[in-house]
Amino acid sequence: MHQIFFWGFALLAVFSALMVITRRNVVHSALFLISTFFWVAAIYILLEAELLAAIQILVYAGAIMVLIVFTILLIHVEETKIINPWQRQRPIAILLGVFLLGEIFLILSRALFPESIAGTALQQVAQEGNTEAVGKLLYTKYLFPFEVASILLLAAMIGAIVMAKREIEK
Amino acid sequence: MVLVKIIIILGVILLVVAYLTYLERKVIAHLQVRIGPMRVGWHGLLQPIADGLKLLVKEDIIPEKADKWVFILSPIICLVPAFVVYAVIPFSQHFYLANINIGILYIISISALGVYGIVLAGWSSNSKYALLGGFRSAAQMISYEIFLGFSIIGPLMLAGSLNTLKIVEAQSGVWFIIYQPLAFALYLIAGIAETNRIPFDLPEAETELVAGFHTEYSGMKFAFFFLAEYANMMVVSSMAVILFLGGWKGPFLPGIVWFAIKVGAFLFLFIWLRGTLPRYRYDQLMRIGWKIMFPLCLLNIALTGIIYYLFL
After folding, report:
1. Which of A170, B74, B139, B171 could lock B121 by a disulfide, CB 3.0 to 4.6 Å apart?
2. Which of B84, B90, B136, B88 shows the shortest CA–CA distance to B114?
3. pTM value?
4. How close A56 gets to chain B, by Cα (Å)?
């Protein structure tokens, strides 16, 4: 049962991801990207990472994609159709692809050993539930990276406000 | 068993939503010293059924220049999240569909998706009024979703759980509205804005935008938007009852009756507000949200944290 669901969700996720990069209409691409997020969230639920699934939908499908769709809708779709989508992106795409592959191999190699980080985290989650475990880890063991990420986000937010204000003053 | 429950819940909600339109027309009529629908059935009681039949058999028009697939998909995107969230709402101690640990988070994240239906409906109609309505709605819903989420952190801190059943159980002694009056007020304002109701119904301001995002819709697709709006009103009311008013708890009567009474009171408040208040201007709406509501939400979280740490 688990297996069937996993393959169903995985195939749908990959199919949606392929549709994202092959659609000519950006709005349709965006819609398929939302559905990709959804199927990935479904896989998280199969892995019993329910908090992660909820956050995935809330933050990515719910918040970030709304802003992206919002921006896309302001562009005239007809104009963007003419441009060649592969322009000058090849070297960057290859570089990113290599990075991602490396990351996947790293995670797979770690997951094969039972004493890995993933293993201990799973035990903790099983003991006290998702939300509590993630919360505790974020505020104890991973406090420093958590704070660094917060400061990064704060800096980006201030940057965005400053840039927007400059536009208005002109 | 679960399937039977799903059918019961969906059936009851659809019926309640249909009669909510009747209630709204009647209550507003009496607020304005009119009598409202009277012709179909006793005091117009069969009016919602007549309306439903009418919408079902009406001609379904898709504008020629519209993006056909997105145009058809939008009402569905709007309606489905509004109904799916009932899965985790506990109607009484024993009557609920799913008991999951992330209950409240699930409601918030799923209902956040409804905004796509509205934005895409506005865009795919290929009409200026609809597009403007869609944009307004998107900006409004994104902003007020943030306040909605932040305003419920206070009660969640007191409950110490995201599970809807545990939140209600945590209010066995005192309802959270006593401890969290500020959070309750903020939640109510954000909830009204989130459902695009008066005084925050700018996405469909008739005087400026014809009917806003659903200008081009007709027949059953139009009805879907309507159903979604009323179903969302009930979700917001149910969440308020769970988070602030002790859910199904109350003396003498069975839990499900108490739940219905409390939700009904909120729905009446929604209608009452519509009959009483004028509409805000768009810049006022954004200013209220970001400059008043948001700081107050943060203040409430900080105060709750400090008091919780010092006294409990």
Report:
1. B74
2. B84
3. 0.83
4. 9
pLDDT, tens digit, for every residue of A79-125? 555 566 666 778 888 899 999 999 988 888 776 665 555 555 566 66
Number of residues in chain B? 312
Distance from A62 to chain B by nearest Cα, in Å? 5
CB atoms within 10 A of CB A62: 26
**Is position A21 within any domain?**
yes
Q: Quick check: A66 and B102 CB within 8 A?
A: no
pLDDT tens, B145-171? 888 888 999 888 888 888 888 888 888
Non-local (6+) Cβ contacts of B212 within 8 A are: B122, B129, B130, B132, B133, B134, B136, B137, B203, B204, B205
Which candidate, B165, B31, B184, places its Cα nearest to that of B98?
B165
Q: Which domain holds residue A127?
A: 118-170
Distance CA A154, CA B44 (A): 56
On whether residue A34 sits in a domain, the answer given is yes
User: Taking Cα atoms as reference points, which of B56, B143, B279, B159 lies closest to residue A66?
Assistant: B143
Tokens for B230?
Answer: 């009323």
Q: How far apart are CA B223 and CA A164, in angstroms?
A: 40
Alpha-carbon Rg for chain A, nearest whole angstrom, is 20
For residue B149, the chain A residue with the least C-alpha distance is A58
Question: Is the residue at A94 inside a domain?
Answer: no
Residue A21: CATH number of its domain:
1.20.120.1200
| ipTM topping 0.90 | no
Mutant choice from A40, A69, A128 vs B, greatest count of B C-beta within 10 A: A69
List C-alpha distances in Å: B279 to A115, B196, B213, B217. 61, 11, 17, 24
